[in-house]
Design brief:
With 129 residues, the chain is mainly alpha-helical. The protein is 74% helix and 0% strand. The protein has helices at 8-29, 37-55, 61-87, 93-112, 114-117, 123-126. Helix 1 runs antiparallel to helix 4 (93-112), helix 2 (37-55) packs antiparallel against helix 3 and helix 3 (61-87) packs antiparallel against helix 4 (93-112). The protein starts with 7 loop residues before the first helix and ends with a helix.
């Protein structure tokens, strides 16, 4: 990455992974009854994660730090909901394991690569800190 990328390559990877995960979750929850609350809860959570990731690019550096932590926590909460759906036989064990693995990978990536995802501080931002 060049210094003027501001993490865009890393962000593009995150956007792509989040979009594919959201699409996969929608496909898996297509099999749920329309009246099943877990269907809508899982979809709402996946959209919230996806939307939060899309907003990272336009967030200030301080907002990005907070957003990355919040997204990681949202992912972990969503996995708990997926576990509930899996235990209730709404989601096959195979689909659950794939979604869980990929969501955890995304959460870990956000934490491990947070400094690459965050914009490089300008010299002006360093003065007085």
């Amino acid at each position: 990455m060049s210094s003027n990328d501001n993490g865009n390559g890393y962000l593009e990877y995150v956007y792509e992974r989040a979009q594919k995960l959201t699409e996969a979750l929608y496909r898996v929850t297509d099999f749920f009854s329309e009246s099943e609350p877990l269907k809508w809860l899982l979809r709402r959570d996946s959209l919230a994660i996806f939307e939060s990731i899309l907003k990272i690019k336009t967030a200030s550096p301080n907002e990005r730090i907070r957003a990355l932590e919040q997204i990681s926590e949202k992912i972990r909460q969503s996995i708990r909901t997926l576990e509930l759906a899996s235990s209730g036989s709404f989601i096959s064990e195979a689909n659950f394991q794939v979604l869980k693995r990929e969501y955890l990978h995304l959460a870990d990536y956000l934490v491990e690569r947070r400094y690459e995802i965050l914009p490089e501080p300008s010299a002006a931002g360093f003065i007085g800190h």
